[in-house]
Amino acid sequence: MLLRKLYIVAALIACGPATALAQQAGALQIEHPWVRATAPSQTTGAGYLSIHNSGADADKLLSVNSDIAGMAEVHKVTKADGMVKMGPVQGGLAIPGGKTVDLSPGGNYHIMFMQLKGPLKAGDKVSATLDFAKAGKVDVTFKVEPLTYQPASGHAGSMNMDHMSMDHGDANGSMSMKMMKMAPSGHGN
């Protein structure tokens, strides 16, 4: 019995911090949920994670709720004609059977936490509830990473947004950024 407990502890240590916050919900595996730390007066933050659907049937992420923010949404990023636009995903985010959907810096999707109730501090953990069409409500813990954090090479790279101007919204709730310079951070997709 003691040997079995030691094996379990060793396995948990070997998994490391990236998988320590993984959550199983039916056929869905939610991995490496994290947010980047924010400045004291910052009112928005972005959350990232991967959702792997090991089942044959698709599921759909319908909504996100969290006590850390007045509002949370899954956002889609689109690029066209020198502009980067982001806004809420309409009708939910499809999670196809047998596929992984990454919500990652520089990727097509992320969770936008708006109207933050306080700063997100490196080392803290924050909770959110993901609501899926089939898997139902899933409580997820996001690790708050430092401002300089870059995900491991297995996750999509981030964009350098130092030279962009941002329009904080239109009538549809979309945000857009004028691209003046956009370069990958060096991490692969």
TrEMBL record:
Query: What are the alphabetically sorted keywords of the record?
Result: Signal
Reply yes or no: does the keyword Signal apply: yes
Q: Which InterPro entries match?
A: LpqE-like, Lxx211020-like
Any keyword Signal? Answer: yes
Kindly give the Pfam families that the UniProt entry links to this protein. Answer: PCuAC (PF04314)
Cleavable signal peptide = 1-22
* Protein origin, superkingdom: Bacteria
Q: Which ranges form a coiled coil?
A: none
Query: What is the name listed in the Swiss-Prot or TrEMBL entry for this protein?
Result: Copper chaperone PCu(A)C
**UniProt source species:** Candidimonas humi
Q: Which lineage?
A: Bacteria, Pseudomonadati, Pseudomonadota, Betaproteobacteria, Burkholderiales
